[in-house]
Amino acid sequence: MSEIQIENVSFGYEDGMVLENVSMEIKKGDFVGIIGSNGTGKSTLIKLMLGLLPLKTGKIVINDHNIGYVPQVGLAVKADFPATVQEVVMLNLYQEIGLFKRPGKKHIELVDKALETVGMLDKADKQIGKLSGGQQQRVMIAKALVASPEVLILDEPAAAIDSENEQQLYHLLQRLNVDKKLTIIMVTHSIENVEQSMNKIYVIKNKLVTRRK
Ligand SMILES: Nc1ncnc2c1ncn2[C@@H]1O[C@H](COP(=O)(O)OP(=O)(O)OP(=O)(O)O)[C@@H](O)[C@H]1O
């Protein structure tokens, strides 16, 4: 079954076209890599899929509307940022909880489960800013997972972490894909250490998207 179907999508900003005639098909259970150099349009493509940019030409059909998004992290969270790991993950349940209400036992259990999945349950009460870049990245994945998405989209998840943590992150994603049947779309400029886990790889170059695997 198709999760996301992209048909003949073209998109540009004021200064010109970024993507031309892109077609892609993402099925349930796929682990998809989207690779390309800086500025080729990877984030633009993701934002189109998430409906964060207005589509002008072509068609995008999304089957499951519950998509978890882990945005690109620029700089790590400031050390004195006043929120714990548990509170950060809880933010993604606010719709369910209600804005001015307190989280109930059920919500705390969901958060703990998501933190356990990414191996961060023992850090639940720590200040988010006191964690390493790799640990913060895991918390951001837990934040996406807590809302039980069918599809997880990650934008350059390894950008701010060292190679050891990168390997651990890829193991985690592979586990989520294989064990939890989560559809994963990962945008990156290098797939060197994760290529074997992916069943589909698309390359963006010169505004075109071609399938390499
Ligand atoms: N909001 C915007 N307005 C105008 N141009 C933009 C905007 N966002 C991105 N661009 C341009 O569109 C092109 C693609 O940008 P995009 O961020 O999608 O690339 P990317 O492949 O994700 O890059 P990176 O690897 O550096 O994150 C770039 O030339 C960029 O300058």
Automatic annotation (TrEMBL):
Gene Ontology terms for molecular function: ATP binding; ATP hydrolysis activity
Keyword ATP-binding in annotation: yes
Highest taxon above the source species: Bacteria
Entry keyword set: ATP-binding, Nucleotide-binding, Transport
Residue ranges annotated for the ABC transporter domain, each copy included: 4-213
Record-linked InterPro entries: AAA+_ATPase, ABC_transporter-like_ATP-bd, ABC_transporter-like_CS, Metal_Ion_Import_ABC, P-loop_NTPase
UniProt family annotation: Belongs to the ABC transporter superfamily.
Protein name: Metal ABC transporter ATP-binding protein
Originating species: Lachnotalea glycerini
Lineage summary: Bacteria, Bacillati, Bacillota, Clostridia, Lachnospirales
